[in-house]
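Deliverable D5.2: sample structural annotation.
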Amino acid sequence: MKIIQISGITLLLTFLYLLLASNQAQSQNMEIEVHAGAFDRLHSVASFNFPHHVEEGVYIIRDDRGGETTIQVDNYNRGWLIIENLAAGSAVTYHFDGTKADDPATVNYQVDDDTILIKNGDNNVLSYFHGYNVPPPSLDERYRRGGYIHPVYTPAGTVLTTHLNENQHAHHSGIWSAWTNTVFQGRTPDFWNIHQNTGRVDHAEKLEESWKGPVFSGFRSKQDFTDLSVKPAVTALNEEWQVRVFRAPSDFHMFDLRVTQTANTSSPLYLPEYRYGGVGFRGHIDWDDPENCTFLTSEGLGRDGHGTRVKWTHIGGLSDGKPGGIAIMSHPENFRHPQTVRIHPDEPFFNYAPTQLGDMVIEPGSPYIVKYRYITYDGEPDVEKLNRLWNDFAYPPGVTVHH
């Protein structure tokens, strides 16, 4: 009789192989149950973490009603899908078996040396400066920078933002992030008003990563908050942006911005009470005429909504003769929700400003995180639709994974 000897290493490797195969088999067969909750769901984003590792990519999932759709899995092992129609109180179950989808990236991007342009199908949604802008001759080198979004478009292609406005607040740049009234290491750098030469915000490097697919496209980037009031200059905050542009129907565009700010040194950044600061929005140059720009908050106020606490705010008007607008939505997890707003009395400027309610501080080891959703559209705002979309953002469909 021939005796076959198996080493301990061989047994270990065999065990690990069988364990890996078992885990892979489990990860490839799951039931994903999506619950509408208290709201009717119409083109709603649902996302969840897989209980097992799933390779990044796009997969086909089949529901219990005989239909199928695609799910996009990111590199953080999180799945994303669009729920097109699900009545309040109901649920739908999808079967995931690891079948890859040969789906074109409905939401895609084009990138060059300085910008990344995100598109929903054939339509432009937004552009982000991961490199440098090109200031006009009337503006000096202080205005040559990146780390902000411009232009932002409606579905019909109307531009809603401006930057490098030579006649009015050239430091306002589409959608950007900065703090105005600060105290850092005993100094008072102003990162917002870059022409004051005490502070500024710049992109830290090229794009960290970018994504595309049938559910969303986007990118991750980093910015530095630099204190220029001391020599050599000191970086006070490191900032990370995650921007996701979602597939959307023809009547609106939708994208999310998640901002994470972390102290770069052992010193905190103090933010004394002030009327503005945070993530700003500057509207189209045609909206500099206050007669051609309207505001509407979720509570039904216009420009008189300044200083009030709201869920969303619309800004709109005629851009190059075409009506369009944007609604900026704040998430319930944001600090001091519902956050107070800065609505300029004459100009097309807006931001959520939690410092209106008192002092803040960004401590080392305790990042400051905010999440905003942006909806763009042509024509006038649809209040009912905006309330529905805010409910989706604030209270998304619930997901349970069975494996």
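Annotation notes: The two ends are 45 Å apart (CA to CA). The domain at 8-103 is CATH 2.60.40 (Immunoglobulin-like).
The annotation will be released with the project's public dataset once the embargo ends.
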